[in-house]
Amino acid sequence: MTSNDVFLCSVIDLVTGALIHGFVSKASISTFISLSVPIMANADPNVAFYGFTPVPRDPDVLFANHPTASGDRPKQDLFVAENFPFPDSTLVRDVKAFVKNELDEQTFNHSNRVFIYGEYSPISTSRYPPFPRISAPRVALVKTHFPQWSYDQETYYLASLLHDIGTAQKYLATTKMSFEFKGAIVARELILQLGGVEDQADSVCDAIVRHQDIFVKGGNITMIGQILQLATILDNVGIRANLIHPRLIETTTAAFPRNGWSEHFARVVETELKLKPWCHSTTFEIPNWKEGVQSNFATDVRGNSVMKPFD
Description:
Blueprint: H1 3-20, H2 26-42, H3 45-49, E1 54-56, H4 59-62, H5 90-102, H6 105-118, E2 120-124, E3 135-140, H7 153-162, H8 169-172, H9 179-193, H10 198-209, E4 220-222, H11 223-237, H12 246-255, H13 261-275, H14 296-302
Antiparallel strand pairs: 1-4, 2-3
Helix pairs in contact: 1-2, 5-7, 6-7, 6-11, 7-10, 9-10, 10-11, 13-14
């Protein structure tokens, strides 16, 4: 049996199990298979496991005519924060300790909210070694609408914890790089230093580099990168908050309080713009933005009406 044959067995097993348990509709199978084709051609199980599976970058394309996410009344599964336990491993504990030491409380809490808003509860499906055990979503937040997606939960948590590490005082004003790019490098080096797998470190790095590519319309992004974008923009600006149940927001902000996050992050944005008027955050601004011009990005963050009751 070739590696592609083995992977095809895994795909069939995953789809069959999802259908039996009612996690996906028959209409979702074609989408799942289309997402699996690049992986099968690559024959590298780490592509799927560490969240490199390509999906459309533009959420408008991703959600266009979507059966549960489009329209005025998208599906909202009733979940609470406690439904989404955090991964626990030596690597996770070490990264979390590093992040807590470097980030302020507001940013640390934001990073954990991002995990909850974007995460799913996994069930193991693969029975074919030597491939990693890929997890299929059982319940979801934004992934309520993409039950066929799968990736390593720990990798997404590491990306969530580290996605704003570049805003830490230790890094923001000590580099001329945009905070996402510096943070991505720090994250990759940290994971490798702590004994993480290179593909995992690369997945986290790639997602962090691109997590503010909000205005890029063409092409693809990694699955973990897309979820990270959707979850961060939801928490920061409130975009697509109607894809999750209000009770989830209530319980998540209770577990990880915002403590004035909107104002706090708006000031971080303004600080970086002042320090580095060439930075990637200027993509939110008018062309040829200059100091003294009101920041569109900071204004949008401060105007987050969805999260205002919890700030």
